[in-house]
Give the backbone structure.
Amino acid sequence: MDINPIGDPRFYARSGPFNICDVARVAGGSAAESGLMLTGVAALDVAGPLEVSFLHDGRYAAALATTRAGAVVVHPDMAGQVPHTAVAILAPATYEGWARVAGMFHPVPPANPGIHGSSLVSPDATVDPLAEVGPFCCIEAGANIGPGCRIGPYTSIGRGVQIGSDCRIGAHVSISHALLGARVILHPGVRIGQEGFSFAHTKTGFLTIPQLGLVLLEDDVEIGANSTVDRGSMQNTVIGAGTRIDNLVQIGHNVRVGRCCVIVAQVGISGSTVLEDYVQVGGQAAFTGHVRIGRGAQVGAQAGVIGNIAPGAIVLGSPAQPRHDFFRQVATLKRLAQSSRTKCATDERSLHA
C-alpha cells in the first residue's frame, strides 16, 4: 500500500512554500529571520527539515529534543528547549497558532461553482451562482443556498430551507424546516429538522403531536457525522453561534444551545433543555428534558443530568453531582471495599487458627 506523509495530496489541498517569518506572523508569534522556506506541517517525530511542527504540552518535550523539524511553534517559556537545528516560532497562544499555521498550508478548498447534472433542483429554489451542488442532490421549492456553499452528494434540502454563505454540507445530509447562518459545517449523515419525539397517550395508543417549529443554526456552527437535531414543537430548536457538536449526538425538540458550547460524541439532550453559553459536555452524557445548564458549566463524560446546573459548576456521575461530592463518594466506597476485604481476610485467618 502506497502511504504518503501527513497531508496526503490525494486528499488534502496544499499551499506553500512559505517563508519562516510569514509562518511566524500567521502563528501570532515571532521567529529569527533565517530565509528558511517551509513546505508543510508534521508531527515532531516525523517532521523533516523543511516542515514546521509544534509543542504545546511539556509532557512531549523529549520528542522536541530529537525532532528533525525545520521550525517548531512553542510557547516562549520553552524557547531554550528547541534544538539548534530548528527555528523556534515563539507564540504565546501555541495551540491557536498551530491551528492557523496548519490552515495556512492546508486551506479549505473553495467551492467549485455549479450544479451537477444529476442533481434535481426545483425551479422555485434559489442557488447562488457561486455555490457548488454535488451529484444526486435534491433541492426543493423555496430553498435558498447562499454564495460559496458546497453541497455534498446525495444531500436533500427540503422546502423553504435557507442556507447562508460559505456553508459546507457533507454527503448524505438531510435538512428540512431549518434556517442556517453563515459558515455552518454539517458533516456526512447529519439530520436536521426531522420531527421530534413527541406524542400523547390515548386509550387506543399513541397520538403524534405536530411539530411546528424550526431548527435555527447560527453562524459558525459545526455538527459532526450522523448527529441529529430535531425541529421544535411549539418553539424553535436553536444552536448558538460558534458551537461545536461531535459525531453521533442527539438533540431533541425545543432544545436551546448557547454560543460556543462543546458537545462531545454520543451525548443525548432531551426536549426543551437549555444550555447557556460556553457549556462543555463530555461524551455519552445524557440530559432529561426541561433542565437548564448555566453558563460555562462542565458536564463530565457519562453523566446523567436530571436537574438544573448552576453557572460554572463542574458535575460528574449519574445522577450528576458536583465534582468534589462525586470524588468524595468514590473515595468512601473504595475505603469501605478495602475495609470489607481486610475484615474478610481476618475472619478467614481466625477460622484456620
